[in-house]
């Protein structure tokens, strides 16, 4: 029990420590040979490569997507349109020494095919892993109108077969070994379902248990569940939620979002699932409230610098990552521009804290 209680603050094991670049990382060390598709990576300083070597190879950090012109000089070598970067920027992004994962959220609105996933996989190094968000078709309890207002119950909510056919199977087929975390981010539930959360948890168990095994195609792959209602973490539901995840080999995705409690209040669920991987999506600074994406966009665009640093969140997340990766487990972290203002700079700051903690870990 002491090890479990201590886990997220004590990276005792040296298993998985940095110092040796993981397979495929050397492919990111030559920005001058950038993709011949018109988007070239920035010229990164030697200290950025040195920092990457100090990180555990099981830690993959990145951004929630990659199509931001404001990252000129940070990720790109010059000025490109958002459309250019959306279509052609991933190969350059994948050469950044710290960016070893990225989120694919567009499938939330329309399921992606195996061939679309394969096109993404072909643009990144072998050690790169994707964090992919499941389609709303199976993760939203409501069918929504254009403004996001729920219109009627969604009959496909948590449908196991649809989840397999429209998400898990095409992602595995297309991404293969580059599959990281396949995230079922469950939209806020209507009040009637929140009152029957134990029933929803059993439906979730059925969905997760029905998915094909990931490890044959994707040795690092993991199913993860992210929620947007605090009720899932309430004492009366926490043990049930943990049992659903543990019994199906899935994990909890730490959702750093204004709709959810602070990180320290989400960690008890992760501890119940120990040992195992960590998945985290840092989506939105709570300063802007649960519906604050528009406000954050107005405040932070063009996303070229940190506006609202969150040192306490950084410190706790770094401590957690050092604990998990220090024991040899995988961790996948994606950070949005809406977290602090500039996702690549947030990643670098977090990497520096993790590296410092790993360097002082007790052997």
From TrEMBL:
Pfam families: DUF72 (PF01904). InterPro entries: DUF72, UPF0759_sf. Residues 1-40 are annotated as: Disordered. SUPFAM superfamilies: TM1631-like. This is Uncharacterized protein YecE (DUF72 family). It comes from Melaminivora alkalimesophila. The lineage of its organism: Bacteria, Pseudomonadati, Pseudomonadota, Betaproteobacteria, Burkholderiales.
């Amino acid at each position: 029990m002491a090890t479990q209680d201590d886990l997220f603050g004590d990276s005792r094991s040296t298993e998985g420590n940095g110092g040796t670049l993981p397979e495929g990382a050397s492919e990111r060390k030559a920005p001058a040979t950038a993709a011949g598709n018109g988007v070239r990576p920035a010229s990164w300083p030697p200290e950025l490569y040195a920092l990457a070597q100090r990180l555990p190879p099981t830690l993959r950090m990145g951004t929630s997507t990659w199509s931001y012109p404001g990252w000129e000089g940070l990720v790109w070598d010059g000025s490109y349109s958002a459309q250019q970067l959306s279509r052609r920027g991933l190969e350059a992004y994948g050469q950044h020494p710290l960016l070893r994962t990225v989120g694919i959220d567009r499938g939330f609105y329309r399921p992606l095919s195996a061939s679309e996933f394969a096109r993404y996989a072909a643009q990144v190094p072998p050690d790169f892993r994707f964090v992919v968000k499941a389609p709303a078709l199976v993760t939203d309890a409501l069918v929504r109108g254009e403004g996001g207002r729920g219109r009627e119950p969604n009959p496909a909510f948590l449908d196991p077969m649809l989840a397999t056919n429209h998400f898990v199977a095409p992602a595995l087929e297309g991404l293969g070994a580059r599959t990281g975390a396949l995230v079922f981010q469950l939209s806020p539930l209507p009040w009637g379902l929140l009152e029957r959360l134990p029933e929803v948890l059993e439906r979730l168990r059925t969905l997760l248990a029905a998915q094909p095994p990931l490890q044959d195609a994707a040795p690092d792959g993991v199913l993860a569940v992210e929620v947007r209602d605090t009720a899932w973490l309430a004492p009366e539901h926490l043990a049930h939620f943990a049992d659903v995840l543990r019994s199906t080999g899935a994990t909890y995705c730490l959702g750093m979002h204004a709709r959810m409690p602070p990180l320290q209040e989400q960690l008890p669920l992760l501890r119940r699932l120990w040992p195992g991987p960590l998945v985290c999506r840092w989506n939105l600074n709570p300063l802007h409230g649960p519906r604050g994406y528009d406000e954050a966009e107005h405040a932070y665009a063009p996303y070229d610098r940190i506006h609202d640093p969150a040192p306490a969140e950084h410190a706790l997340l770094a401590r957690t990552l050092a604990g998990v990766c220090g024991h040899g487990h995988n961790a996948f972290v994606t950070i949005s521009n809406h977290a602090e203002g500039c996702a690549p700079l947030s990643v670098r700051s977090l990497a520096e804290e993790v590296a410092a903690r790993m360097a002082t870990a007790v052997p």
